[in-house]
Amino acid sequence: MATVIVTEVEKIWLSTNEVIKYLSIGKDYLDRLREEGKIPYYKPTGKKPIFYKKSEIDRFIAKGKVI
User: Fold this and answer.
1) Which residue in 45, 47, 56 sits closest to 19, CA to CA?
2) Is the Cα dihedral 47, 50, 56, 59 positive or negative?
3) In percent, how much of the chain has pLDDT > 70?
4) Residue 51 has pLDDT above 90, yes or no
5) Cα(27)–Cα(17) distance, rounded to whole angstroms?
6) DSSP-assigned beta bridge partners for residue 13
7) What is the structure's pLDDT at 65?
8) How far, in Å, CA of 32 to CA of 26, rounded?
């Protein structure tokens, strides 16, 4: 029987600080994107913390493709 060792797991959910770092933007700009409905977010408890799905952040980036 083979042994499988997992060294890294890709994150599905990102925190506000992780999205800020991932996109290299400021918190105010992320807040504006969220408030304008440009980036979807999730609040599982109805309050803080706020989470973002990484695949949706990647789609947001891809929408800005410049040819």
Assistant:
1) 56
2) positive
3) 100
4) yes
5) 8
6) 53
7) 84
8) 10
**Integer-rounded Cα radius of gyration of the chain:** 15
**CA-closest candidate to residue 13, choices 57, 52, 60:** 52
CA distances 50 to 29, 37, 38, 47, 55, Å, are 15, 14, 15, 8, 16
**Separation of alpha carbons 60 and 56, rounded Å:** 6
Task: Count how many Cα atoms sit within 13 Å of the Cα of residue 39 in the half-sphere of its side chain.
Answer: 25
Token pair listed for 52? 């973002």
* pTM (2 d.p.): 0.80
